[in-house]
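Run: sequence + 2-acetamido-2-deoxy-beta-D-glucopyranose -> complex structure.
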Amino acid sequence: MASISFTLPIFLTIIFFLPLKIIPTIGTNADETRIHFYYQERTKPPNATAIKVVSSPIEHANPIFAFGNIFVFDDPITEDLDPASHLLGRVQGQLVIVSLDGNDGLYTLNIHFTNLSPWTGSTLTVIGRNPTQQTVKELPVVGGTGLFRLARGYVVVTRLTPIDSPSGILTFLVNATLFNH
Ligand SMILES: *[C@@H]1O[C@H](CO)[C@@H](O)[C@H](O)[C@H]1NC(C)=O
Ligand SMILES: *[C@@H]1O[C@H](CO)[C@@H](O)[C@H](O)[C@H]1NC(C)=O
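>> structure
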């Protein structure tokens, strides 16, 4: 069996990630179900999972958030912070910049669990305001399919990496709270 020796950077990375590591968890009481998971957005080629499909004709100080820009994304849901960790599903949707000042986006997305018991095959649909300049965003869950049929609740999406992450990979934590009746 190969012996394991930690180099210092790897060791530091592990220490750094440990307090953040949250395996997708399920907290259920009579009133609500809570689910936590990560998804990863690759913003740079090759293999980008988020692309701009419409570019605004309007000049904007921050071209990413120009009024009218439309992005689509198909981001993997992963078991933990490591983008290479186990694939649990996809977050698929679009972001349209809908305010003249670029501060408001309309986020429309489906959360599709492809490998997370007991929700494999079930989806949640989220539609709401995405405050583009904030790292923590609350969005309404407006419905779902399968075990999430008639879902009601909200998600809090936290971006854990800087928007200009040198790796080109943005990691998001999602905390979903769903009402059970
Ligand atoms: C991009 O995807 C191809 C095909 O799946 C794969 O071979 C390649 O390693 C990927 N490149 C990166 C940087 O992930
Ligand atoms: C999300 O849930 C995790 C695990 O319970 C918690 O540590 C974290 O503070 C929550 N984040 C938000 C923004 O609610």
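>> summary
The chain is about 5% helix and 50% strand. The chain has a mean pLDDT of 87.
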